[in-house]
Amino acid sequence: MKFFLIAGEPSGDRLGAALMAGLRELAPGCRFEGIGGPAMQAEGLASLFPMEELSVMGIAEVLPKYFHLKRRIRQAAAAALAAEPAALITIDSPDFCLRVARIVRAARPGLPTIHYVAPSVWAWRPGRARKMDRVIDHVLALLPFEPPYMQAAGMSCDFTGHPVAAEPVATADQARAFRAAHGIAPDAPLVAVLPGSRRGEVARLIPPFGEALGLLAEAMPGLRVVLPTPAHLATVVSAAVRDWPAAPVLLVAPDVATRTAAFAAADAALAASGTVSLELAAQSCPMVIGYDMAPVTLWLMRRMIRVNTVTLVNLVSETRAVPEFIGSDCTPENLSAALAPLLAGRTGGQPEAMRLTMDRLGRGGEAPGLRAARSVLAHLAKGPPAAEASGGDI
Q1: pLDDT tens per residue, range 60-80
Q2: What H or E segment, with its residue span, contains residue 316?
Protein backbone atom coordinates (compact mmCIF):
# COMPACT_ATOMS: atom_id res chain seq x y z
CA MET A 1 0.00 0.00 0.00
CA LYS A 2 1.37 3.39 -1.02
CA PHE A 3 0.51 6.85 0.37
CA PHE A 4 1.31 10.27 -1.06
CA LEU A 5 1.76 12.79 1.76
CA ILE A 6 2.29 16.54 1.69
CA ALA A 7 3.44 18.65 4.64
CA GLY A 8 4.34 22.33 4.36
CA GLU A 9 5.89 23.34 7.68
CA PRO A 10 7.72 21.88 10.70
CA SER A 11 4.61 21.12 12.75
CA GLY A 12 3.09 19.29 9.78
CA ASP A 13 6.36 17.44 9.26
CA ARG A 14 6.17 16.09 12.81
CA LEU A 15 2.54 15.07 12.34
CA GLY A 16 3.39 13.35 9.08
CA ALA A 17 6.28 11.43 10.63
CA ALA A 18 4.10 10.13 13.47
CA LEU A 19 1.37 9.17 11.01
CA MET A 20 3.88 7.33 8.81
CA ALA A 21 5.17 5.41 11.82
CA GLY A 22 1.60 4.52 12.78
CA LEU A 23 0.72 3.38 9.27
CA ARG A 24 3.84 1.25 9.10
CA GLU A 25 2.91 -0.37 12.41
CA LEU A 26 -0.68 -1.13 11.38
CA ALA A 27 0.03 -1.88 7.71
CA PRO A 28 3.57 -3.33 7.48
CA GLY A 29 5.18 -2.84 4.12
CA CYS A 30 3.37 0.38 3.20
CA ARG A 31 5.38 2.92 1.19
CA PHE A 32 5.44 6.71 1.05
CA GLU A 33 6.03 9.44 -1.51
CA GLY A 34 5.46 13.17 -1.33
CA ILE A 35 6.77 16.33 0.32
CA GLY A 36 8.05 16.60 3.86
CA GLY A 37 10.79 17.78 6.14
CA PRO A 38 13.50 16.04 8.17
CA ALA A 39 11.12 14.12 10.43
CA MET A 40 9.22 12.57 7.52
CA GLN A 41 12.45 11.96 5.65
CA ALA A 42 13.72 10.06 8.69
CA GLU A 43 10.67 7.81 8.29
CA GLY A 44 11.67 7.03 4.71
CA LEU A 45 10.18 9.83 2.59
CA ALA A 46 12.25 11.25 -0.26
CA SER A 47 10.82 14.77 -0.50
CA LEU A 48 9.87 15.95 -4.00
CA PHE A 49 11.36 19.37 -3.17
CA PRO A 50 12.39 21.19 0.03
CA MET A 51 9.41 21.58 2.33
CA GLU A 52 10.71 24.97 3.49
CA GLU A 53 9.58 26.51 0.19
CA LEU A 54 5.99 26.18 1.43
CA SER A 55 6.50 27.76 4.86
CA VAL A 56 4.87 31.10 4.06
CA MET A 57 1.57 32.53 5.18
CA GLY A 58 -0.49 35.68 4.81
CA ILE A 59 -1.45 37.52 1.64
CA ALA A 60 1.44 39.99 1.71
CA GLU A 61 3.94 37.19 2.37
CA VAL A 62 2.62 34.85 -0.35
CA LEU A 63 2.26 37.36 -3.20
CA PRO A 64 6.00 37.62 -4.06
CA LYS A 65 6.17 33.81 -4.33
CA TYR A 66 2.81 33.32 -6.01
CA PHE A 67 4.01 32.04 -9.40
CA HIS A 68 6.63 29.80 -7.85
CA LEU A 69 4.03 28.29 -5.50
CA LYS A 70 1.66 27.76 -8.44
CA ARG A 71 4.38 25.75 -10.19
CA ARG A 72 4.97 23.72 -7.05
CA ILE A 73 1.22 23.03 -6.75
CA ARG A 74 1.13 21.64 -10.30
CA GLN A 75 4.32 19.65 -9.70
CA ALA A 76 2.97 18.13 -6.48
CA ALA A 77 -0.36 17.22 -8.10
CA ALA A 78 1.35 15.60 -11.07
CA ALA A 79 3.59 13.56 -8.76
CA ALA A 80 0.60 12.47 -6.66
CA LEU A 81 -1.27 11.27 -9.73
CA ALA A 82 1.80 9.49 -11.12
CA ALA A 83 2.35 7.67 -7.81
CA GLU A 84 -1.10 6.04 -7.96
CA PRO A 85 -1.37 5.93 -4.15
CA ALA A 86 -4.05 4.35 -2.00
CA ALA A 87 -4.76 7.87 -0.72
CA LEU A 88 -3.55 11.44 -0.94
CA ILE A 89 -2.89 12.71 2.60
CA THR A 90 -2.39 16.45 2.94
CA ILE A 91 -1.15 17.82 6.25
CA ASP A 92 -2.12 21.32 7.37
CA SER A 93 -0.88 24.15 5.03
CA PRO A 94 -4.36 24.35 3.46
CA ASP A 95 -3.60 27.14 1.01
CA PHE A 96 -1.13 24.85 -0.74
CA CYS A 97 -2.45 21.39 0.09
CA LEU A 98 -6.08 21.89 -0.85
CA ARG A 99 -5.14 23.34 -4.21
CA VAL A 100 -3.14 20.20 -4.90
CA ALA A 101 -6.11 18.11 -3.77
CA ARG A 102 -8.41 20.00 -6.14
CA ILE A 103 -6.26 19.15 -9.17
CA VAL A 104 -5.98 15.52 -8.07
CA ARG A 105 -9.72 15.22 -7.44
CA ALA A 106 -10.54 16.66 -10.87
CA ALA A 107 -8.20 14.19 -12.59
CA ARG A 108 -9.03 11.14 -10.46
CA PRO A 109 -12.32 11.54 -8.59
CA GLY A 110 -12.14 8.07 -7.06
CA LEU A 111 -8.84 8.62 -5.25
CA PRO A 112 -9.44 9.00 -1.48
CA THR A 113 -8.27 12.35 -0.12
CA ILE A 114 -7.54 12.87 3.57
CA HIS A 115 -6.56 16.10 5.28
CA TYR A 116 -4.70 16.06 8.60
CA VAL A 117 -5.43 19.12 10.80
CA ALA A 118 -8.90 20.56 10.45
CA PRO A 119 -8.90 24.18 9.24
CA SER A 120 -9.81 26.60 12.01
CA VAL A 121 -13.28 27.34 10.63
CA TRP A 122 -14.45 27.86 14.21
CA ALA A 123 -12.09 30.87 14.28
CA TRP A 124 -12.44 32.47 10.86
CA ARG A 125 -13.57 31.89 7.24
CA PRO A 126 -16.23 29.25 8.05
CA GLY A 127 -17.01 28.88 4.35
CA ARG A 128 -13.71 27.01 3.92
CA ALA A 129 -15.28 23.83 5.25
CA ARG A 130 -17.90 23.74 2.49
CA LYS A 131 -15.28 24.40 -0.19
CA MET A 132 -13.00 21.79 1.37
CA ASP A 133 -15.77 19.19 1.10
CA ARG A 134 -15.44 19.34 -2.70
CA VAL A 135 -11.92 17.90 -2.62
CA ILE A 136 -11.49 16.18 0.77
CA ASP A 137 -13.31 13.05 1.96
CA HIS A 138 -11.98 12.59 5.47
CA VAL A 139 -10.37 14.84 8.11
CA LEU A 140 -8.08 14.02 11.03
CA ALA A 141 -8.70 16.61 13.75
CA LEU A 142 -6.23 17.62 16.44
CA LEU A 143 -8.72 19.42 18.67
CA PRO A 144 -11.68 17.71 20.34
CA PHE A 145 -14.28 20.32 19.34
CA GLU A 146 -13.51 20.21 15.59
CA PRO A 147 -15.27 17.06 14.21
CA PRO A 148 -18.81 18.53 14.29
CA TYR A 149 -17.71 21.45 12.09
CA MET A 150 -16.24 19.11 9.49
CA GLN A 151 -19.16 16.66 9.61
CA ALA A 152 -21.66 19.48 9.16
CA ALA A 153 -19.83 20.39 5.94
CA GLY A 154 -20.17 16.86 4.59
CA MET A 155 -16.84 15.22 5.45
CA SER A 156 -16.17 12.36 7.83
CA CYS A 157 -13.87 13.42 10.67
CA ASP A 158 -12.17 11.77 13.64
CA PHE A 159 -10.52 13.46 16.61
CA THR A 160 -7.18 11.69 16.75
CA GLY A 161 -5.54 13.58 19.60
CA HIS A 162 -2.73 16.08 19.46
CA PRO A 163 0.84 14.71 19.23
CA VAL A 164 2.07 17.17 21.82
CA ALA A 165 0.01 15.32 24.43
CA ALA A 166 2.06 12.19 23.78
CA GLU A 167 5.46 13.84 24.10
CA PRO A 168 7.44 12.90 27.22
CA VAL A 169 7.38 15.39 30.07
CA ALA A 170 10.87 16.46 31.09
CA THR A 171 11.82 15.64 34.66
CA ALA A 172 13.21 18.10 37.18
CA ASP A 173 16.59 16.37 36.84
CA GLN A 174 16.52 16.86 33.05
CA ALA A 175 15.64 20.53 33.51
CA ARG A 176 18.52 21.01 35.94
CA ALA A 177 20.88 19.15 33.59
CA PHE A 178 19.86 21.44 30.73
CA ARG A 179 20.74 24.52 32.75
CA ALA A 180 24.05 23.05 33.81
CA ALA A 181 24.95 22.01 30.25
CA HIS A 182 24.45 25.58 29.02
CA GLY A 183 26.06 27.40 31.93
CA ILE A 184 22.77 28.73 33.32
CA ALA A 185 22.73 29.07 37.10
CA PRO A 186 19.96 27.17 38.92
CA ASP A 187 18.48 30.39 40.27
CA ALA A 188 18.89 32.53 37.14
CA PRO A 189 15.59 33.74 35.62
CA LEU A 190 15.32 31.93 32.27
CA VAL A 191 13.03 32.83 29.36
CA ALA A 192 12.40 30.49 26.42
CA VAL A 193 11.89 32.61 23.30
CA LEU A 194 10.09 31.17 20.28
CA PRO A 195 9.59 33.69 17.46
CA GLY A 196 8.19 31.20 14.95
CA SER A 197 9.30 28.81 12.23
CA ARG A 198 8.69 31.02 9.17
CA ARG A 199 11.00 33.76 7.94
CA GLY A 200 8.21 36.33 7.94
CA GLU A 201 7.27 35.57 11.54
CA VAL A 202 10.86 35.76 12.73
CA ALA A 203 11.50 39.04 10.90
CA ARG A 204 8.48 40.67 12.54
CA LEU A 205 8.79 39.22 16.03
CA ILE A 206 12.53 39.24 16.75
CA PRO A 207 12.66 43.07 17.20
CA PRO A 208 9.81 43.47 19.74
CA PHE A 209 10.79 40.25 21.52
CA GLY A 210 14.39 41.44 21.84
CA GLU A 211 13.36 44.87 23.12
CA ALA A 212 11.01 43.25 25.66
CA LEU A 213 13.91 41.16 26.96
CA GLY A 214 16.03 44.29 27.15
CA LEU A 215 13.44 45.91 29.42
CA LEU A 216 13.33 42.80 31.61
CA ALA A 217 17.12 42.57 31.80
CA GLU A 218 17.28 46.07 33.24
CA ALA A 219 15.24 44.88 36.23
CA MET A 220 16.73 41.34 36.30
CA PRO A 221 20.50 41.57 35.63
CA GLY A 222 20.88 37.77 35.75
CA LEU A 223 18.26 37.14 33.06
CA ARG A 224 19.09 34.34 30.59
CA VAL A 225 17.44 33.41 27.29
CA VAL A 226 17.19 30.16 25.36
CA LEU A 227 15.96 30.21 21.76
CA PRO A 228 15.23 27.03 19.75
CA THR A 229 15.16 27.52 15.97
CA PRO A 230 14.76 25.29 12.91
CA ALA A 231 17.94 24.68 10.94
CA HIS A 232 16.83 26.66 7.88
CA LEU A 233 16.51 29.82 10.01
CA ALA A 234 19.60 29.38 12.14
CA THR A 235 21.77 31.87 10.26
CA VAL A 236 19.05 34.52 10.17
CA VAL A 237 18.16 34.10 13.84
CA SER A 238 21.78 34.03 14.99
CA ALA A 239 22.47 37.35 13.27
CA ALA A 240 19.24 38.92 14.55
CA VAL A 241 19.88 38.08 18.23
CA ARG A 242 23.60 38.88 18.28
CA ASP A 243 23.03 42.13 20.17
CA TRP A 244 20.31 40.84 22.45
CA PRO A 245 20.80 41.10 26.19
CA ALA A 246 21.38 38.04 28.33
CA ALA A 247 23.60 36.12 25.85
CA PRO A 248 20.92 33.95 24.20
CA VAL A 249 21.56 30.21 24.03
CA LEU A 250 20.65 29.23 20.48
CA LEU A 251 19.39 25.66 19.99
CA VAL A 252 19.53 24.75 16.31
CA ALA A 253 17.03 22.03 15.34
CA PRO A 254 17.04 20.54 18.85
CA ASP A 255 15.77 17.00 19.30
CA VAL A 256 12.60 16.43 21.32
CA ALA A 257 14.48 15.65 24.53
CA THR A 258 16.51 18.86 24.38
CA ARG A 259 13.51 20.98 23.42
CA THR A 260 11.31 19.62 26.21
CA ALA A 261 14.13 19.99 28.75
CA ALA A 262 14.60 23.63 27.68
CA PHE A 263 10.90 24.35 28.19
CA ALA A 264 10.88 22.61 31.57
CA ALA A 265 14.00 24.52 32.63
CA ALA A 266 12.53 27.91 31.67
CA ASP A 267 10.66 30.02 34.19
CA ALA A 268 8.52 31.52 31.41
CA ALA A 269 8.26 31.69 27.64
CA LEU A 270 7.70 34.42 25.08
CA ALA A 271 6.28 32.79 21.97
CA ALA A 272 4.60 33.33 18.63
CA SER A 273 1.01 32.20 18.32
CA GLY A 274 0.66 28.59 17.18
CA THR A 275 1.28 25.00 18.17
CA VAL A 276 4.20 26.00 20.36
CA SER A 277 1.77 27.17 23.05
CA LEU A 278 0.68 23.54 23.40
CA GLU A 279 4.29 22.34 23.54
CA LEU A 280 4.95 24.78 26.36
CA ALA A 281 1.78 23.71 28.16
CA ALA A 282 2.89 20.08 27.95
CA GLN A 283 5.99 21.05 29.97
CA SER A 284 4.02 23.31 32.36
CA CYS A 285 5.93 26.40 31.21
CA PRO A 286 3.89 29.60 31.70
CA MET A 287 3.86 31.84 28.66
CA VAL A 288 3.09 35.12 26.98
CA ILE A 289 2.01 35.06 23.33
CA GLY A 290 2.92 37.78 20.85
CA TYR A 291 2.18 37.92 17.14
CA ASP A 292 2.32 40.37 14.27
CA MET A 293 1.92 40.17 10.51
CA ALA A 294 1.74 42.35 7.43
CA PRO A 295 -0.82 45.16 7.90
CA VAL A 296 -3.13 43.97 5.12
CA THR A 297 -3.11 40.39 6.45
CA LEU A 298 -3.83 41.60 9.98
CA TRP A 299 -6.65 43.85 8.76
CA LEU A 300 -8.30 41.00 6.90
CA MET A 301 -7.88 38.58 9.80
CA ARG A 302 -9.51 40.97 12.26
CA ARG A 303 -12.48 41.43 9.95
CA MET A 304 -13.04 37.68 9.69
CA ILE A 305 -12.05 36.27 13.08
CA ARG A 306 -14.86 34.73 15.15
CA VAL A 307 -13.07 34.12 18.48
CA ASN A 308 -11.57 36.52 21.01
CA THR A 309 -8.28 34.65 21.46
CA VAL A 310 -5.87 32.96 19.06
CA THR A 311 -3.94 31.04 21.71
CA LEU A 312 -4.66 27.32 21.57
CA VAL A 313 -4.25 26.82 25.31
CA ASN A 314 -6.97 29.41 25.90
CA LEU A 315 -9.25 27.84 23.29
CA VAL A 316 -8.89 24.22 24.40
CA SER A 317 -9.12 25.00 28.12
CA GLU A 318 -11.98 27.48 27.54
CA THR A 319 -10.13 30.07 29.61
CA ARG A 320 -8.20 33.23 28.85
CA ALA A 321 -5.37 32.42 31.23
CA VAL A 322 -2.54 33.03 28.73
CA PRO A 323 -1.96 36.73 27.89
CA GLU A 324 -1.64 37.47 24.20
CA PHE A 325 -0.67 40.61 22.28
CA ILE A 326 -1.51 40.73 18.59
CA GLY A 327 -0.65 43.32 15.92
CA SER A 328 -0.23 46.82 17.33
CA ASP A 329 -0.54 45.41 20.87
CA CYS A 330 2.62 43.33 20.35
CA THR A 331 4.92 45.94 21.88
CA PRO A 332 8.03 45.50 24.02
CA GLU A 333 6.30 47.27 26.90
CA ASN A 334 3.25 44.99 26.87
CA LEU A 335 5.28 41.82 26.46
CA SER A 336 7.75 42.63 29.24
CA ALA A 337 4.98 43.72 31.62
CA ALA A 338 3.19 40.39 31.10
CA LEU A 339 6.37 38.34 31.47
CA ALA A 340 7.58 39.98 34.67
CA PRO A 341 5.01 38.40 37.02
CA LEU A 342 5.54 34.96 35.45
CA LEU A 343 9.27 35.20 36.15
CA ALA A 344 8.41 36.12 39.74
CA GLY A 345 6.30 32.95 40.07
CA ARG A 346 2.89 34.63 39.78
CA THR A 347 1.36 32.44 37.09
CA GLY A 348 -2.33 33.02 37.82
CA GLY A 349 -4.61 30.45 36.21
CA GLN A 350 -2.06 29.15 33.72
CA PRO A 351 -1.10 25.89 35.51
CA GLU A 352 -4.70 24.67 35.66
CA ALA A 353 -5.41 25.79 32.08
CA MET A 354 -2.34 23.90 30.84
CA ARG A 355 -3.30 20.73 32.74
CA LEU A 356 -6.85 20.85 31.40
CA THR A 357 -5.54 21.42 27.86
CA MET A 358 -3.34 18.34 27.95
CA ASP A 359 -6.15 16.19 29.35
CA ARG A 360 -8.49 17.30 26.58
CA LEU A 361 -5.86 16.67 23.90
CA GLY A 362 -5.56 13.03 24.91
CA ARG A 363 -2.69 12.79 27.37
CA GLY A 364 -2.48 9.23 28.68
CA GLY A 365 -4.32 7.71 25.70
CA GLU A 366 -3.14 5.96 22.54
CA ALA A 367 -0.42 7.82 20.62
CA PRO A 368 -2.02 10.34 18.22
CA GLY A 369 0.04 9.13 15.25
CA LEU A 370 -1.29 5.63 15.77
CA ARG A 371 -4.85 6.91 16.22
CA ALA A 372 -4.51 8.92 13.02
CA ALA A 373 -3.19 5.88 11.14
CA ARG A 374 -6.08 3.77 12.42
CA SER A 375 -8.53 6.43 11.23
CA VAL A 376 -6.92 6.52 7.77
CA LEU A 377 -7.11 2.75 7.35
CA ALA A 378 -10.68 2.59 8.65
CA HIS A 379 -11.71 5.27 6.17
CA LEU A 380 -10.05 3.44 3.28
CA ALA A 381 -11.80 0.22 4.29
CA LYS A 382 -15.13 1.90 3.50
CA GLY A 383 -14.21 2.09 -0.17
CA PRO A 384 -13.47 4.93 -2.62
CA PRO A 385 -15.47 8.18 -2.56
CA ALA A 386 -18.31 8.75 -4.98
CA ALA A 387 -17.09 10.55 -8.08
CA GLU A 388 -18.27 14.15 -8.29
CA ALA A 389 -17.17 17.39 -9.86
CA SER A 390 -14.86 19.52 -7.75
CA GLY A 391 -16.01 22.96 -8.97
CA GLY A 392 -15.07 26.31 -7.42
CA ASP A 393 -11.92 27.46 -5.76
CA ILE A 394 -10.42 26.66 -2.39
Answers
A1: 445 567 788 899 999 999 999
A2: helix 312-317
Q: Residue 95: is it exposed, middle or buried by C-beta count within 10 angstroms (0-12/13-18/19+)?
A: middle
pLDDT beyond 60 at 165: yes
Mean pLDDT of 94-119: 95
CATH T-level fold of 2-161+365-381: Rossmann fold (3.40.50)
Instruction: Return d(Cα 55, Cα 34) in angstroms, integer.
Output: 16
Residue 205: per-residue pLDDT = 96
DSSP state of 187: T
Where b means 16+ CB within 10 Å and e means fewer, 239-256 reads ebbeebbbebbebeebee
Phi, psi of 27 (to 5 degrees): -135, 75
The whole-angstrom separation of Cα 345 and Cα 166 is 27
pLDDT tens for 285-327 read 999 999 987 777 666 666 656 567 889 999 999 999 999 999 9
Q: Rounded CA gap, 273 and 129, in Å?
A: 22
| This prediction's pTM | 0.77
Adjacent-strand bridge partners of 139: 115, 157
Q: Which helix (H) or strand (E) holds 35?
A: strand 31-35
CB 121 within 8 A of CB 128: yes
Determine the topology of domain 166-360 in CATH. Answer: Rossmann fold (3.40.50)
Q: Which pLDDT tens digit goes with each residue over 3-14?
A: 999 999 888 998
Q: Where in the chain is the domain with CATH 3.40.50.2000?
A: 2-161+365-381, 166-360
Q: What are residue 359's DSSP bridge partners? A: none
